[in-house]
Design a protein that fits this description.
about 350 residues; mainly beta; six-stranded antiparallel β-sheet; five-stranded antiparallel β-sheet; 5 helices; binds 2-acetamido-2-deoxy-beta-D-glucopyranose
């Protein structure tokens, strides 16, 4: 009896530091200041959230809290930029239409659907969230995934880049590494989890990944230690993006050969090329202060703003002018769906 009361308390009022918050969409276009800085347009379309000083260049010395006048994220001292590729539907006649996004349950009204961002000290199921983690520093950025991966073996280099086929807003089970191969009534969630062990020295690396590593075995979820090469334990950064596939769920519109119809903006129709980009931009010690506090989700203090205020920062003027919504004969940048 006592045990279940304690558990109930832990679930209803957890004393933990698991930061979870919504960001509205800042802009959606072909820019990628991390992988192809200065290139206008970049090779494929992204959807970007966070501080409004986002631009094509984003040098490491950029003062994101200083140069941004607002952010589309709930924590108003978070001027980081977070981005992913964009999902398209490929019709039987070979033309493409962009798939819109839903915000997570509880964040309705967030412009463009945006994304939900997490910073976790310990695995999600661990409500204590007590481990000490080091916050990222100005100039820090990272990438996870391989846009060229088209097989399960290639995708296996990355742990925890997944899809969830959603029956309803609460669906979280049966994550897959490939695109779901059947109709997902509510939509498809992509969960992008970054590595959690930092080399402690480099704020970036040529492939934007080598300065980070996974725990020695298992995943962050299995609470394994960091390797000696990358000894500094950071928080687990995770993005949840929900693609609202509901207007593309008629099986009569799906390929006749039994394949699924969704394709990433860079042409991947397998799903194995799932990837994400992160550029740190929290003000001063704001992130470390929250990570050092026992708190949960949006009860984590700090300075926060309403969804209406987040949305006021959305709609950054596009640098690249082109139709990215469809129906398009090719994905922006000239990509076509690749199935292998
Ligand atoms: C991006 O913003 C920086 C200031 O942070 C500016 O120096 C640079 O010229 C901008 N680059 C582009 C391509 O607009
Ligand atoms: C291709 O198919 C889509 C979806 O059925 C339709 O809306 C579009 O008009 C078609 N385009 C052409 C050129 O037939
Ligand atoms: C991971 O490695 C640690 C240390 O070598 C070991 O104690 C633990 O059992 C391993 N866990 C798994 C899931 O293999």
């Amino acid at each position: 009896m006592q045990w279940s009361t304690a558990l109930l308390l832990a679930l209803t009022a957890p004393s933990s530091a698991l930061i979870r918050f919504q960001c509205s969409q800042l802009v959606r276009e072909r820019l990628d200041p991390l992988v192809s800085p200065g290139l206008v347009p970049s090779p494929h379309v992204h959807q970007i959230v966070g501080g409004n000083s986002f631009n094509a260049t984003m040098e490491q010395a950029k003062d994101m809290p200083g140069e941004s006048t607002c952010t589309t994220c709930q924590f108003s001292e978070d001027f980081s930029n977070y981005w992913t590729a964009v999902l398209y539907f490929r019709a039987r006649n070979g033309t493409y239409k962009r798939v819109p996004q839903h915000a997570n349950a509880g964040f309705d009204g967030s412009t463009g659907g945006g994304m939900t961002v997490y910073y976790m000290q310990d695995p999600l199921y661990d409500t204590a969230q007590k481990s000490k983690v080091t916050a990222f520093k100005p100039g820090f950025r990272m990438f996870v995934g391989d846009i060229n991966a088209r097989t399960k073996e290639q995708a296996a280099h990355f742990r925890q880049l997944t899809y969830t086929c959603m029956d309803d807003a609460g669906s979280r089970e049966h994550e897959t590494v490939a695109f779901p191969n059947h109709v997902c009534p509510y939509g498809i969630m992509t969960s992008t989890r970054f590595p959690t062990c930092w080399d402690g020295v480099n704020y970036d690396s040529p492939d934007h990944m080598a300065h980070m590593a996974y725990p020695v075995n298992g995943t962050f979820e299995s609470a394994a230690p960091c390797p000696a090469t990358h000894p500094v334990r950071t928080s687990q950064v995770m993005y949840e993006v929900i693609w609202d596939t509901s207007s593309f769920n008629d099986p009569n519109d799906w390929p006749e050969d039994g394949k699924q119809p969704f394709v990433w903006s860079f042409g991947d129709a397998t799903g194995y090329g799932n990837h994400g980009d992160y550029v740190f931009g929290w003000k001063d010690q704001a992130l470390q202060n929250i990570l050092d506090t026992q708190c949960y989700a949006s009860s984590c203090g700090g300075k926060q703003q309403s969804i209406a205020d987040m949305n006021k920062c959305a709609g950054l003027k596009e640098t690249v002018s082109e139709d990215i919504d469809g129906w398009l004969d090719a994905l922006p940048g000239g990509h076509q769906a690749q199935y292998s």
